[in-house]
Amino acid sequence: MSATHLTEKDARAAAALQNTPPTGNPDRRLSAALWCAGVATFALMYAPQGLLTQIGNDASVSPAQASLLVSAATLGLALSVLPWARFSDRVGRPTAMRYAAATAGLLAVAVPWLPTFDALVAGRFVQGVALGGLPALAMTLLHEVAAPARTAALAGSYVAATSLGGLSGRLLVVPVADHLGWRPALAILGGGLAILMTILIALLPAGRARRSPVPSTGILAIHLRDTRLLALFGIGALLVGGMVAVFNYLPFRLEAAPYHLAPTVVSLIFLAYLAGTAGSRAAAWLVGRFGQRTVLVLACTCMAGGTMLSVAGPLVLILLGVAAITAGLFVGHAVASGMVGAHAKTGRAQATALYNVSYYAGSSLFGSVGGFAWASGQWLSVAVLVLVLTALALLLALLPSTTARRVVATESC
């Protein structure tokens, strides 16, 4: 496309690609927009996780059934990311993200007031469908708009924002719920996140459709035959499934004997997400120094070691184990998701959408499977499940096809 055909927003994006500082600093604006998307999406998606014991007692459902409030949202997200990617090809990434943010903001306030547990599960599923347009398109927008030299830092910043969102959503609602009840707590959080979604809508650049010469079904078929991409999809699904199982059922362990911790105290375990924030920010540096495969192996090993620590009795060791699990997940996720976006030269939106499908399907599936593990052998069985998942992810990380050129990861993880 010649310069005479560029819109004002395209000109700004082109200037960014040339490392020319245009008016308004679009990289900084994009970073702020993606930060809002990461925090709001993950705070909204995982906020009920800190309240599962209270909701389970109030609704008279089992721990496995209570966990459906998390799994339903992640399942809705997993099923919606491909439609969101296709929709964004028609209207542009930013426009699609605006629709997603507006819908998710409205649902954030409405869903907590649904009267029955079954209605809540259905509402959370719809909420996940709306949220799917944000993580499905954030990385794609980043690669299309940001200067190449900035993609690694911006991607790490976005993943760090997702960890902060996951932390704040889980941590903030519990003390409010202790005083007002879990429904008002979720509604108050939803109101704050609706404001954040409004800011996101204002910060996103103008969007234009980016049509691919290959039909979307053909692009998906190409990606599904790519062994490197399939391995990366599997790594994301297995690692996040293990971490979600940990956070779904650890509160049930800590609120029971011999710990008898109050829900507000138990919610402090989510401070382990700060380890994930640090890990995702450090991922690009680690890959540049040690290479992709080494960092993926390190992430899997860190999760496995943390899981074994969590089986110990002393509370300090349990907390250290959870921090290691969280750091391992976010390092692995930052590297794997960045490699997907960099490796897919055609149909990048579809490739990142497929990664998100596998990632959130893994979260939904293994988060629920963890309930069966808990019912059969409580925490020891949950730990065994997580170790199996991390071992499978490690095998995928060691496959020769998983590793791309180092320069790709240092620019894109």
From TrEMBL:
Keywords on record: Cell membrane, Membrane, Transmembrane, Transmembrane helix, Transport
Keyword NADP: no
Entry-linked Gene3D superfamilies: MFS general substrate transporter like domains (1.20.1250.20)
Main location as per UniProt: membrane
Biased amino acid composition, Basic and acidic residues: 1-12
Any one GO CC term of the record: plasma membrane
Major facilitator superfamily (MFS) profile domain ranges (all copies): 1-405
Record's subcellular location: Cell membrane
Protein's UniProt keywords contain Transport: yes
GO MF terms held by the record: transmembrane transporter activity
Membrane spanning residue stretches: 32-52, 64-84, 96-115, 121-142, 154-173, 185-207, 228-250, 295-312, 318-341, 353-373, 379-399
Domain of life of the source: Bacteria
Entry-linked PROSITE patterns: MFS
Topology in the lipid bilayer: Multi-pass membrane protein
Region (Disordered): 1-25
Entries under PANTHER family matching the protein: BLL2771 PROTEIN, INNER MEMBRANE TRANSPORT PROTEIN YNFM
Family under the similarity heading: Belongs to the major facilitator superfamily.
Protein name, entry field: Putative major facilitator superfamily transporter
The organism's taxonomic lineage, starting at the top: Bacteria, Bacillati, Actinomycetota, Actinomycetes, Mycobacteriales
